[in-house]
Structures
1.
Amino acid sequence: MSTQQEPAVPGPGTGTGTEAAAVAEKKVYRLPGPQVMWWVWVVFLGGNLLDLAIQGHNYESLQISVGLLAITGLVYACTLRPRVIADADGLTMINPLRWYRIPWPRISEIYLAESVQFKCSEGDGASGKTLHSWALYSPRKARLKADIRGRRWERGAPSRPGGYGRMPEEGRDASRRTATEFMAKEIDAKAKDAVGRGASGGRVEGHWAWWSLFGILIGWPVLALIVALH
């Protein structure tokens, strides 16, 4: 599980106690796997571009370089970009090509299928909708493995004096959860706490990620043009 806590202390002479508290509540949720994939790709890309720069000085090298850069935009959008950000007022869900802003009171339910899904209530002239998070996913196979792991721990508990057999029920339940389930549960607790503190509602906003779209789409026409002109 990878949750990244934002700095809780503002710079000297800036911000108020309320602002500091808001920063402290801000938290980013994402899984480590996609981040590892991104950096593996960066190393692969750097190695190939360096090799092409040293040895390749022809039209084919140009085609390969543009193709690698075009793929990089797609890899970035699908791995490093997606995240879910929770703060004092609501949730920002960033997917490869879209991002959404959901005020806490508009989240009526959070549940887990292949990904974490946020069911939004109707309000402020907007209809209810269910939004799927790209960053927080939990395939059925992963959930099944976590459940099997928990059952094995339970079967082995008597042979572990002072160990798992004496853990509270929460600990036993935790052994059956995936990292994504932990994150979904924490986000759900934040939503309920915010509503309990009287958080105000608002519209669920959705926008296209234009820079991400540009990064993905611009490379492929350029590559096609270079191939066509060859």
2.
Amino acid sequence: MREVARYPVCPTCIAKPEPLNAEHFCVSCRTAFQNSFPLDEHGRCALCRSGLRGFDAAYSFGFYEGVLRHLVHLYKYGRIRTLARPLTVLLARALPREEAFDAVVPVPLFWRRRLQRGFNQAELLARGISQRTGIPMAKALRRLRATSVQAGLSNHLRRQNVSRAFAARGVDGKRILLIDDVMTTGATATACAIALKQAGAKRVSLLTVARVDRRLDGRRFPAGPNQVGRTIPNAE
């Protein structure tokens, strides 16, 4: 209890975020859909079928809304570094049990933004996952240039903004667990995954605390009266 008291939120709020729940989702990137129409017979969405995602799989604990969104904001923008620990607990709950990894790699910040923020939120989360799993953390990615803030940009501009913004090394033949706090459109993760693959990575899986619900207006939609929402695998 003394550890919990260090956080700027009560234990009830820390325990409140719920895992991802959707009736229809892509089996690769876990994007939620209103119906199964965008998915092929294998359950994969168009972006994953076309290879435009860059990464091989994506896992998140919950939707980026409500208390979970507030916790991430406090951590990332409020600079409450102690929230890295409870957020790492949520990350660990979403960690795929059927996959094996050789290295945990955080999404890097450009040096100027890291200096302004005082820390890289993804790196603290990656270090926590490394300590919990025993998988070594590797700073295998480097951000080559400053990029504009992604918020407010269209999907196309997001991809363009981070295109060729990363370089990787020391990952030849390795299975990488890429760590970030939030997945919005996946543009940053895709750029990172491409850099890792170009450096020889065998497989890249993304793990984030939260992801934006892209269905219609971005809000979670409850299951219909005759349906029960399904919890996405690996998000306990």
3.
Amino acid sequence: MVNFSQIMKKVVVLTGAGISAESGIKTFRDADGLWEGHDVMEVASPQGFKNNPALVLDFYNQRRKQLFTVLPNAAHKALADLEKAFDVQIITQNVDDLHERGGSTNILHLHGELLKVKSMGNENDIKVWKHDLNIGDMCSNGHQLRPHIVWFGEQVPLLEKAIQITEHADSLIIIGTSMQVYPAASLIDFVPSLTPIFFVDPKPSVQTHQYQNLSIIEKTAVKGVPDLVHNLIIKNA
């Protein structure tokens, strides 16, 4: 178990689907590997978009609509409270905006954002988009818009920035991720030696012998994160 007195000011938080699932966000991929009945490559790859753009756009339109029906949970709100005592940087694999709505202010969306779109002709032409995206919706230069999502087979543009953030962590909190999706799962290997690491997940995929100073909290995000945050803040007071 990590000694709380070791915790320093720079806290990096890596979050995955588990924290959003407790707000009612579907995690998309079922046990059979299908996303909402679709093969993942049909709805989350450049080739899938090329083959059937209407299907892909509808898939993300449905995800976007669902996002407006859910609210941030106690784990999201606890991470916002953590900012009151520490310099907190969240790196999330999630494409929803629940961290923002929960009150956190420093969020890096490693896999893109559901409420944004980008031009097929210029990946840096990104805009906020909160309604359906259809074939024929164009950027100012006449290129089709697509979801601002990192699809399978695409580079992760913000990976280097995420690595730089992780390399300067005084402590790392990992919440609700299987640690099976790369390259995001590799971020744990970039924290400095002896950095305290907290892993919050009801079915943790790592063990204490794998990393120095690793504490495993076998709870869901809603149950585990508020208590962890409370302890960190108390110990830092």
4.
Amino acid sequence: MYADENESKLPPGAGYWLWDMDREITRQLMKNIGMTLSESDEDTPVSDVFYCPSNLTHRRSRQRCWDYHHPDGSRASYRVTGYFWLLDTLNEQGESVKPEIRGSGNKRWIRTTNMKGAGIAELVIDVTLSDPVVSVQEYPNGNFGQIIAGSGQGQYTGYYDTTSHLRSDRQGAGGNIGFVDGHVKWRHFKEMEKRYGTTPIHWW
């Protein structure tokens, strides 16, 4: 719906973590699904659409994610959602500022729905994150259930970022992949690869 109203263009990515989404963009998307918005962002209702039901941490802490603040108390310009958005970000010259996506296959950042190969182009993905700052012997792929990297600060607050569809702290079960043409399919974790980031690592 957003693309239909914006000449097939998609909104830009908002932050380093792929689940970050600009606050104004979330307001526009919520209007598209018919939600009544308040004038104050703090009072904007949290939409379940932005969070996977499998992620218990997000279910318990949606308001904290939705109205995210940095550790120093300053309000972030983006919201922390429950999905990876493979949205491209362009500089003033119209060039992508996103790093190359790692791993095998023809993976790419998405700018528009008017594209060739829309049926194989991945757009939105269930969160599969790992924190590599743990024992490599015990957690060879990192910890998927307690993400300390970034500003989650779970070791102080008891609030950890976590993978959706979590199989154990050692890995996720897999995730749903939403494609540009609108269809969705399940991908098992064994078929996922490290694609983006270092702390934390984004898998799909």
